[in-house]
């Protein structure tokens, strides 16, 4: 006799699926081994073409529906977001068998308290990449990290980093839609939640996987 199929508590529960989605998302901030620590982030370029890259999730606020990422203010993605804030974020957790797709708009902030606090909270070694002499994506004649020779392979001191603060920016992705897909041999489960600004709450519904 086959053993009965065991499903997680959220399998047929829309509210619990929503809670599990946020739990998996938030895990990426504190757990470097969580798949949500490095989600795929999509933007739209000047020609309307989607562009994807892996980014490190720095912070999550369920209250404000925001995910925080960091970038070089001179980067191509930064310019794309200045022109078109539409953003998508994709997480896949193979252990949980869950895919989470989010979409919203990015608030680009290179100055002010949010960016200043994010800059200060990052380690000196993490901030070293903002010491690159030219913008990310600048063509080179030969391979290079782009960093000045005097800092290559070294951890900078705070006073050495000060001049490079303008190259840093925080990206706050305000999420409007969350789509959930749980994979199961007996039958997948898919749901979507849309932020209702009038009701100031999330509205969810099941979808055919």
Walk me through the structure.
This protein has five helices and nine strands, in the order H-E-E-E-E-H-E-E-H-H-H-E-E-E. With 209 residues, the protein is α+β, with helices and mostly antiparallel strands. It has a single domain (14-122, 169-207), classed as Pnp Oxidase, Chain A. Strands 1, 2, 3, 4, 5, 6, 7, 8 and 9 form a nine-stranded antiparallel β-sheet that branches. The model has no long low-confidence stretch (mean pLDDT 95).
Topology of this protein?
Elements: H1 14-30, E1 40-44, E2 50-54, E3 59-61, E4 66-72, H2 76-83, E5 86-93, E6 98-109, H3 113-121, H4 124-127, H5 158-161, E7 168-182, E8 189-196, E9 201-207
Antiparallel strand pairs: 1-2, 1-5, 3-4, 4-7, 5-6, 6-7, 7-8, 8-9
Quick structural overview:
Helices cover 20% and strands 33% of the residues.
Name the CATH superfamily classification.
Electron Transport, Fmn-binding Protein, Chain A
What overall form do the CA principal axes indicate? elongated
Residue fraction in strands:
25-35%
Q: Helix count, per DSSP?
A: 5
Task: State the CATH architecture.
Answer: Roll
Low-confidence stretches: none
Q: Radius of gyration from the CA trace? A: 20 Å
Strand elements, count: 9
CATH topology: Pnp Oxidase, Chain A
Instruction: Provide the number of structural domains.
Output: 1
């Amino acid at each position: 006799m086959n053993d009965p199929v065991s499903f997680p508590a959220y399998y047929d529960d829309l509210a619990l699926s929503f809670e599990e989605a946020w739990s998996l998302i938030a895990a990426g901030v504190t757990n470097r081994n969580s798949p949500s620590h490095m989600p795929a982030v999509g933007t739209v370029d000047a020609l309307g073409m989607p562009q994807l890259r892996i980014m490190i999730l720095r912070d999550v606020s369920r209250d404000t529906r925001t995910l925080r990422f960091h970038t070089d203010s001179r980067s191509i993605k930064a310019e794309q977001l200045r022109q078109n804030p539409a953003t998508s974020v994709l997480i896949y957790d193979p252990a949980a068998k869950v895919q989470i797709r989010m979409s919203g708009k990015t608030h680009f902030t290179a100055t002010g308290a949010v960016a200043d606090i994010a800059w200060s909270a990052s380690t000196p070694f993490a901030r070293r990449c903002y010491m690159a002499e030219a913008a990310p994506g600048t063509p080179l004649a030969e391979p290079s990290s782009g960093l000045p020779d005097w800092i290559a392979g070294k951890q900078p001191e705070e006073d050495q980093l000060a001049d490079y603060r303008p190259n840093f920016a925080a990206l706050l992705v305000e999420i409007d839609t969350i789509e959930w897909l749980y994979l199961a041999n007996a039958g997948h489960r898919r749901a979507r939640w849309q932020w209702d600004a009038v009701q100031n709450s999330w509205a969810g519904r099941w979808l055919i996987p």
